[in-house]
């Protein structure tokens, strides 16, 4: 999945708040008497030996409980000014001096709005409760003195020994003690924890893995010391101690020995001891309830409703002023505020919320973008106003499926077309012993060839050894698993690894003759082209991290006894580790320009004494509890010096399907695309060209590396002189520019058609998103992907896919999501909000005219059910049916992305369109009221009948006037509303003269008034479409 988040200039309103819950947890812990978070000593299989109380292992994602639900929902509704305002209006009807009619006139609309909100919240809470119940009720096996017993996830305690099967979720944070896998390790799927699709290798505690059976875990006296709970999912410090050993065993524990809750076991069956539960789980502490998001559109609507409230106050004051503030004028002001309260429509919020639910449902159900997930159903219209799109490269624009393309030895390079040469070199290295070639007969050319051959062999061997890949054998229907494993059956072998880069390298070494056929925690087996098995003992592994950008392994060749330290990593770190050479930097640049991901491979031979000395220091550093990572890094760095450079490898990450047309659509829609990646400058530039992020006729300005304020100033001046060119800048230079010239840099960068930031750290990505929002005030959409590192806007790979507002399965779906659904959601929301305001202003204008004619009396024009029915059963369905309206077909919206560009100016909902609708409302309200006063004959009740019927018909006709494309549900809504009104006239004899409405006089008067109120608008609409048509109408005609 691609994580996609839409953010806006008001960071506090829309930014995803992924703060840790540690503060909350601490408060909760204190309340429960559990104290602050502290380190702990956990005895294996003896939860009763605990030193402190630990939280229950219950997952609870609900916002409320049974007792707090109703008070909580009501508080969240009435903490907003307008909801509180309507509550005060309704309450004021209990005061006799302020009462304007029946109580239900004010309480029913308010109750309707609240009931919809309560039902929606209740549905969400029930769903949440059922999801939590399902997780908490999952059954696991627990090792106990009575044997293996079944236990619910919610009953698991700190100290329990839990068995987790393959493809089962880990129920609590555990230390990995044993695995059923022969290689002595297991793989984890962590996508639900950190958003990364790469599998993670985990290693059990070696002391417990060596025990004959899992039941022996209960027979030994051992404990785990674990640090206090914290939010860091990438690090852990602890120790394992076995007291009854001779001598006592002490082992250091790190992230490699952990199984965090919410991860899934991908291989084998594992046993672990629980160290954290409930609110102390890493996954829980990394999750906070996302704040309710308010979109830019909602803020604009709030602004308009504030203007309407101002108008309400002004109209009330004017009415009292025209009475010359006579008598108890302050009471009259309140009565007029109540009388004109319709100016601020109570149904606006509900209509928009229900509309958003419909838009979210449409996105989910769109068969052309399958697998799309909407997590923020409150902001779908934001997708229609994106100005900047920030995207990652790996897994977003590219597939994150690696293909080996190049092997470079400095003096010679092998591409895809010359891999057979590599194969022959490897074959000759293992089939022709060196003494077979007599020195006397070997001319100079042979010596060179032999040197190349041995160098190729060394490089291939290094690549086949320096990795964390495990070959796994599965039954293929012909051969069973045990037999396949015994004979290293090629057809049954699958490679498991945490990174697709590593798998592609091992698959390549297999293709040239050196095959990885077996691996466990302490050894590795390679098969040569002649079928001979080479055995290597793994002495140490230094895994890859984002900080170190390299991985290393120390192995002993069982045949010769040689100890070799192999390392591979990014050129930027390896350049300082390998011996001096004159080709590394240049060739890395050349390969990166071809769009290849480059790794540098090196080795260093160690004597037994050197290794023993290193191991002693390394074990000592790993056992320290304070500053462990620093001490360990220092010891490893003592080895990383003067290493022999073996080769460069180049793998290609291919573009996703339809990336180019999608980027072109976004560009034509007026959306500026920025690519933020951790790759090399040359690789990033090549991908940008390849994906057509930078068009062929565009110049590229590569921002030179800068380290000081002066250099940054000069380079910014040089960049300022360029026009319409894409910018490519490295993370280091970006940091310098943002430190000294933040405003100037952002101003220049925002003018670029495309920006590529390479060697960009996750924190810098967050900073760029924030700065774009603050500096431009425009909506920003950050995409990061593949779930491989679904960094959504702010943090790479941490809870990101789950923090995303919208998730799409492929980058190409982004085009339709924005061009079709984003555009429709925004235009429909704008039309709906303005129509609800128009509906309220119409009846308020009529009330104002009525009061003015009758000596500014604060008497309501419509009583009881009429006022409620007007905004509900008589007009609600036609007005709400505008959420189905569309100006162009989805195919046209995709074909002409320029239509999207019009929305970026915010024209569908602006002060201009608002003013037009206000004028239309005043005109129609005045016409209907004055028409009714002019045409009624004797009875006051005739005014009500004529004006109210004209008002209902006018609203239905105005909906028809607004609709661009008719949907059958719109027609049903119109006819149903009209039928409801006609049918209800029988019951409205208290307000309307039923005999009068059956006369011809009533019919012609209503028809005349309705025509005068609507016909001019129809004529104006026709003339506008004829002489100044909007862009979309040109395409539909």
Automatic annotation (TrEMBL):
Gene Ontology BP, a term: endocytosis
Active site: 392
GO cellular component: endosome; plasma membrane; trans-Golgi network
Enzyme Commission code(s) on record: 7.6.2.1
Family matches, as Gene3D superfamilies: Calcium-transporting ATPase, cytoplasmic domain N, Calcium-transporting ATPase, cytoplasmic transduction domain A, HAD superfamily/HAD-like
Record field: catalytic activity: ATP + H2O + phospholipidSide 1 = ADP + phosphate + phospholipidSide 2
Domain P-type ATPase N-terminal residues, every copy: 46-106
Principal subcellular localisation of the protein: Golgi
Keyword entries, A-Z: ATP-binding, Golgi apparatus, Lipid transport, Magnesium, Membrane, Metal-binding, Nucleotide-binding, Translocase, Transmembrane, Transmembrane helix, Transport
Binding site for ATP: 392-394, 502, 544, 568, 597, 677-679, 759, 765
Limits of the P-type ATPase C-terminal domain: 802-1029
PROSITE patterns: ATPASE_E1_E2 (PS00154)
Topology in the lipid bilayer: Multi-pass membrane protein
Localization per Swiss-Prot or TrEMBL: Golgi apparatus, trans-Golgi network membrane; Membrane
Binding positions for Mg(2+) per the UniProt entry: 392, 394, 784
Ranges where the P-type ATPase A domain occurs: 145-280
Domain of life, per lineage: Eukaryota
Transmembrane stretches, start-end: 66-88, 100-119, 299-323, 329-352, 836-856, 862-884, 914-934, 940-961, 968-988, 994-1020
GO molecular function: ATP binding; ATP hydrolysis activity; ATPase-coupled intramembrane lipid transporter activity; magnesium ion binding
Pfam families: E1-E2_ATPase, PhoLip_ATPase_C, PhoLip_ATPase_N
The family this protein is said to belong to: Belongs to the cation transport ATPase (P-type) (TC 3.A.3) family. Type IV subfamily.
Name of this protein: Phospholipid-transporting ATPase
Organism: Denticeps clupeoides (denticle herring)
Lineage, uppermost ranks: Eukaryota, Metazoa, Chordata, Craniata, Vertebrata
